[in-house]
Amino acid sequence: MATVRPFSTPPSANLVKRLALAGVVLVFLAIALSSCVTRVDAGHVGIKVKLAGDERGVDKSPTVQGWVFFNPLTEQIILFPTSVQNIVWTKDPHEGNARDSSITFSSQEGVNINADVGLSFHIEPSLAPKLYGRFRKSDLMDLANGYVRNAMRESFNMQASQMPVQEIYGAGKGKLVENVSKRMLEQLGPDGFVIDQLTINGALRLPENVANAINRAMEATQQAIQAENRVRQVKAEAEQAITQAEGAAKAARARAEGEADAKLITAKAEARANLILKYSMTPTVLQYRALERWNGRLPVMNGGGAMPMLTFDAAKLGKGGDDDEKKLLELLGQEEEMERKEEAERAKVEKDKADAAKALDNPAPPAPAPPKP
Questions:
Q1: What was the pLDDT predicted at 156?
Q2: Separation of alpha carbons 167 and 216, rounded Å
Q3: Cβ of 325: how many Cβ atoms within 10 Å?
Q4: What's its membrane topology (predicted)?
Q5: Is residue 365 part of a domain?
Q6: Looking at residue 347, what is its pLDDT?
């Protein structure tokens, strides 16, 4: 009678089953692990939200960048952007939104002003969980078009209502933007918003009649400024002409005084010379000069009268005595004294020039510092 043996699995088949089971386990482990890990890239923070337990809600501290492990059954990681966001609210449908999203606010007089506004902002990473916990939104553009835009429109109205329309339309536009930025920072800063830049793009849009009135007022102001500048120019030119005339008059007076002084000096010199001649011309000297000039020839023709001969009235000449000689010596002495004074003055001027040049070439050494106690 034959014996029936039970069927047995070959060893190779058991190995294949084990490998297949291990592969299935690894696949399930990889799927489970991938659902427990996420990556937080640069420019974002990961906000951990607890879905169960007594501490359900947003965790107060954000996770760092990189790979983050969490329990997908009880936790959720929300990626929240912290990079700079740019948004434009404009009337132009080809920029920003397709519909008119420009901002309208009122001035101190109640004039409506419309403007295209641009905003750049980012979120403080440490306050990102608080912002997400308040609004439950991670789309910053959605927050900007709602919450941020309303806050900005309110700030524009609050600040513009304290300024006249002409100031807003002119040089006060920068001041308005600065004040609105400060107010928005005070209002949105506690939620984590950081205002990087707020701008008014392009020109402000006013009612046509208001814009025309402001333009006319500005034009009148410019004309007044030009007229004032012209008056200043004419005044400056008149003062310059007066200064030139005064300078010319002073120069003319100086020339006249110089010419008068020169004539006076010449006259004095001639008078002194005449005095010298007067006291030096005695009859003997004149007779000698006449003989010195005579060439020794008598006139060829004579009318029959006395022979012409140069004669002098000795009574009108100096007597040639001691008094005349004394006066002559005094005059000559005065001339020598004046020449010595002039020579001394010239020598003094030259010496002063030489001393000044020497002082420039060799400056005096600094005084020594007092000894320390």
A1: 94
A2: 14
A3: 14
A4: Single-pass membrane protein
A5: no
A6: 83
pLDDT over 90 at 196, yes or no: yes
Tokens of 76: 């959720």
Q: How many domains does the chain have?
A: 2
- Which among 191, 123, 184 has a CA at the least distance from the CA of 153? 184
Beta strand extents in the chain (DSSP E only): 37-40, 44-50, 57-58, 66-69, 75-81, 85-89, 103-106, 112-123, 193-205
DSSP letter for each residue of 76-122? EEEEEE-S-EEEEE-S-TTSSSSS---EEEE-TT--EEEEEEEEEEE
177 found inside a domain = yes
φ and ψ of 296, to 5 deg: 85, 5
pLDDT, position 306:
54
* Cα-Cα-Cα-Cα dihedral sign, residues 303, 305, 310, 315: negative
Nearest to 49 by CA among 81, 80, 76: 76
Of 184, 206, 228, the residue that ends a domain is: 206
* Residues 6+ positions from 369 with CB-CB distance below 8 Å: none
